[in-house]
Peptide synthetase (Staphylotrichum tortipilum), 1059 residues
Amino acid sequence: MGSSAPSFLSPDSLVDDLAARIPDNVWAKAPVSADQGPAVWQDITWRQLRVAVDFTARWMENELGVGDGHEPIAYTGPNDIRYPIIIMAALKAGHKSFLTSPRNSLEGNLALLRTTKCTKFVFTPEFRAMGDGLAAAAPQVKTLQVPDVGDMLASASADPYESRFGGHMQDHETVMILHTSGTTGLPKPVYLKAGVLRGSVKNISLPTPEERENILVAMCKSPMLLTSIPFFHIFGIMLFSRSLYHQGPLVLLPAGKPPTAELLLEAISNTKPTALACTPSLLEDMCGISGGLEGLATIEHVIYGGAPLAQSCGNTITKVTTLTNGIGSTEAFNIPNMVPADPAEWEYFEWNPNVGIVMELTTDGDDSGLAELVIHRQPENDHQLVFHNYPDLTEWRSNDLYERHPSKPALWRYVGRADDVIVLSNGEKVQPVSFEKAIEGHAWVRGALMVGSGQFQTALIIEPHPEHANHGADEFLDELWPWVDQANQQYQAHARVWRSLVSITSPDRPFQRSPKGSVIRHATCRLYDAQIKLLYAMGNTTNDAQTHAAGLDLPQLRSTVRQAIRSVLGSRADALADDTDLFSLNTDSLQVLQIRQILSTTGILCAVRDVYQNPSVTRLAQHLHATLMSTANPAPTISREQLMSAMIHRHSNFAQPTTPLPAPPPRAQRSVLLVGSTGALGTHLLHCLLSHPHVGVIYALNRSRDATARQTASFREYGLDVEADLAVHPRVRFLTGETAQEGFGLGGEGYEELVREVDVLVLNAWPVNFNSALESFEGVMAGVKRCVEMAAGSARRAQVVFVSSVASATNYPAVRGRREGEGEGAVMVPEVFEFDNSLPERQGYGESKHVASSIIGRAVREGMLAGATVMRVGQLAGTAEAKGMWNTREWLPTLVKTSRFLGKIPTALGPALDQVAWVPVDLAAKAILDLSPLGSPTDDRSEGVLRCFNIVNPKPSPWSHLATIVQQYYAEQGLTVAAVSLDEWLEALKAVDETKAAEHADHYPALKLLDFFEGMKTGSEDGGCGFATEKGVERSATMTQLEPVGEPLMRKWLNEWSF
């Protein structure tokens, strides 16, 4: 950390110094007589604190011996002043305190003690059972009850206890040990270094922009701070450090009572604090009790952290006091941010610009704008506290996701974790895997998924085994409940599942799984998003109150179906008749899921496809009635080709233009509507359009409200220059809307301008979710249909350019086989669009691209569209000419980084990926425009033409060559990366020690994509699937000039990643 090795006065030595200089000043206000009746707060002076620390250090020496400076002593107790006392007494007696959470399970504590080689566990009387449990499970661990806090403070010893190891600590020395909450299954220890405390003290003076205040100033300089934060939590340690190194007295809540809003209000009234640090759930409770807001109004500054705060509550609190959102982690301590310039932006973070924070956009492709907080190591990084704890890292990934402010690109709001842990609304974290596995042990259960992020309680989604899917929901839950109850006993109260929050899935919608068969958590959560929301909304509905459907006749069933649909349609229900087509009322896929779930809560098993294929009250009721009456004769299975055909049919019933439109006169400057401009490809498409000599106005339509800010940030990241600020650029109009809505949700005037002016519509926006079923793209197809209708009815007879995917045709070899005269190697997909529904890859994403292309193709074939072009885009790589880094979350950067730390790289990637036909993203954008109607200098109006091009590299190169380049690159840095088979590489990855992987997850990101990499081994052995490019090369200068991916590009990307 820097060029020098500064020392730092340890906490225990600082207390000795303060007790000598200001003995009667107050360190903390601690409650006494709190178990019964009103609490009374007692001033604890620096003199008393030193006496308590010396008494406890002497007790440790007598009972546990003098430590060697490294030996840990684990401690668990209530949240009182014994935590700070134990920390400093352990240092004096030559030990390191290991602060364990009272919420840890026996398994979690055993794992922590084993990992830290800790053989001493001390506790207060309240945790006698925990100590006894550890003693029984691990006889080598000595367990001991600590003295009462009153005995510590009342010690009569006049002899100071001299520290066994001196008063100064080097940055690399451990002050104490904390632990994570166990997001990877079990909690992992974090060794808090002296450099972290020293750096955090300096960070209060970290420079900020003019007239802006560091949040640490507000936290550390307030005269009296009331806290509800436990000391075993990193936020509690920050406040402990504040009390010592800034001599800012703390006020504690009574440890013998639960931390309620009423208790917080009592503390405010009795101790008159000037600042408050507490959890969001307590603040929300304060907003709901009598006198709560009045109490908060007496405080100058409220700081919360650990979880999001309800927006309505935060907005209310900001009317009576200053509200600030704190941020930190066990690994990184405090992450410097600034007090909001506008109090209304209390829920947003604005990072101090000096700390090396990079907000790295995720690659979900859903236009969400989510980004992960990453800290890049700087040459002078004393203020980057995480690198004191982890000196070998070059960057630290928080695994926390944020969304950007809609109009202020420097502001970010926390939205959740990127990993599997469930963060409840009160900040409690739940590790769901053990619970799920316990439920999956039941013979009737194929899969179990615990959910609850952002909720106060967890819920459970159960996927039955197919042979048990015919059981009713009540029967199934009665059978399963003893297993749920048993699993509940192993979890704390906040993590237990209520009976009313268990939902059973239907066979038509299986969990999303990897090739190995494991459930893909995030994909399945997204798939069941509507059902999860409805489950919480209806969580108070008891099973006893649900209607049993078996006895319903057709009129009763029709009434039930009508009521379910009306409840979902809202204001549109007035237009619903029993024979009305639901999709004529703009019913979307989320609402279909809601209809299905509402019916299931009444005992009616209704599949999603039942609604799609019977889209009216009458037809759905008749179908469900027939199903109930003839369960012995189930409906035949519907093929994927039939599902695609039905979806194409549903979205090809176009609204015809009111009058035939004449061909418009040609013009040199054409207007373009770009749908989806903020992703990597969209950014380069927009830049190419701005540079295009024959393009005038560009309309950039995105769903996100902050598209302008995101676009500006993307242009800056890629080093793309334009002649004016994008926000006020004379040729760009940023529009916020949704293609699936009428008039794109723009309002009459905005939409009418598009209808008047647009010559070319480029449809680039698409949800990139390779695990979604085709049905989940229903709403997207509604948007495709509206794009077709807008272009067909436009004054300029706009042509459509659709950015498709090679996944829409990768089943071509299996369907068509090798063409006559085609040599060995990959079977080549021609540059022609075919309406054959068997061609796309067997996944919802590829199928959806084919369906959309078919809808557009039908419009051309029927004469509605003047013309259209389908661009099948392959693997997009990092840039070739522009700046900007290939996103490190994608599979190739992940493979390279992992290989660097494994010391091994695979020389083959399986049949589908061994031939590298990647196209740099900036060149792909140029090629798309070359091959679009804009590629001609004249206003090309070829009527009725449906073109198709394959945007892949016409000059593929072998992966084995690129792997050699990676080896050479690291060899030049003195690192050996051996060439191995894919199987050997996968085995080495799976053999990474669990503890090593948890502590250095940054080194092995491929662990998170293990299923994907294992899936590389599968595929055709006859050369796989290739894509013809002859027509594209003939028409596009960019395609003609594309070079194979070789050493120059590979080294460019390696240098940008700097792994």
Q: What stands out?
A: The radius of gyration is 32 Å. Residues 7-25+44-197 form a domain with the Rossmann fold fold (CATH 3.40.50.980).
